[in-house]
Amino acid sequence: MDIGGSKTEAVALDPAGRVVATTRLHTTGGTEGVLSTAVAAIDALARNTNRSVGDFAAVGIGIPGQIDREAGVVRHAYNIGIDHLPLAAQLAERTGLAITLDNDVTAAAIGAAHLMELSGTLAYLNLGTGLSAGLVVNGVPLRGAHGVTGEIGHLPVDPLGRPCPCGQRGCLETVASGSALKTFWPAGGDHPGRVLLGAVDAGDPDATAAFENLVRGAASCVRLLVLAMDPHTVVIGGGLRLLGPRLIDGIRATLEGWAAESPFLAELELSGRVQVLASDSPAAAVGAALD
C-alpha cells in the first residue's frame, strides 16, 4: 500500500510477486483518516480477489515522513496530517494482520527493481512535490544508520543559492521539485507541473526558466547518484516524470553536454543509465508489499 497526500494505492500480490488486484482511494488525512483509508483499501482488495481480509499474509505500507520500522511508527508526515502515529500497531489491531512500514520512496525503489526486472544497484530518483532517492542493491534497500539515506534534496549544491525550508540555501529540492515550481513560479498555481509545458510553449519566460532549472537540477541529481553509488540504473519516478519526453530528453541532453566537456564523465555513460518508471506503475505499493 502506498499512502500519499492525495491518493492511496494498494495492490495484492500472489506468492510469485505478481499483481493480482489493485485499488485506488482518496487519502483522508489525520490519524483516523489514514487508518480508515488503509482499512478501506484492504477491504477493497479482499473483495477484488474474492478473499477475506484474514487470507492476506501481511500488509506492507509505504508512507512519507520519518519511519521507525522497528516500532512501526510514522512521524512528521505533514502532507497527510500526521505528526506521530503508531500505524503498524493500530492497523494490526483493526485488521488482525501483520503490518510493516517503510519510507514511500524506498518502497518505490524496491518496486521499480521488481517490476522493471532490474538487477544490480538501482538508484530511484523521485521527482515529486519533494526530491529524494531510494537505493536498492540486488533487491536489498539501503536505509542507513538513521533512515535518511537518499535525502539528496537537501544537499546544498545548487548555484542559485535559493533558500530551502530546511534552513539551508541552494538545496537541490529548490530547483528540481514540484514545491520549487510552486514557490519560484507562482503563476503555475497549486499544480504547476500540469501547466508548465503549456506556459513554456506560450513563451512565458518565468516558466521557461523554471523548466530549465528543473532539467538542470534533475540532471545534477543523476550525476550525484552515479558518482556516489555507481548504480547500474537510475530510474526516474515521481509525478514530475509525467512531463514526459521533453523532461527526460532534456535530462539526457544535459548529461551528454557535461560528458562532452569531461572525459571523466564521458566514461561513466551517465545518460545511458537513465530509465523512466511507467506512468501507470504501482511501484511504491508493490515495493511495500515485497518489503
UniProtKB/TrEMBL annotation:
Signal sequence, renumbered to the chain: none
Entry superkingdom: Bacteria
InterPro entries found in the cross-reference section: ATPase_NBD (IPR043129), ROK (IPR000600)
Family affiliation: Belongs to the ROK (NagC/XylR) family.
Protein name: ROK family protein
Species, as recorded: Leucobacter chromiireducens subsp. chromiireducens
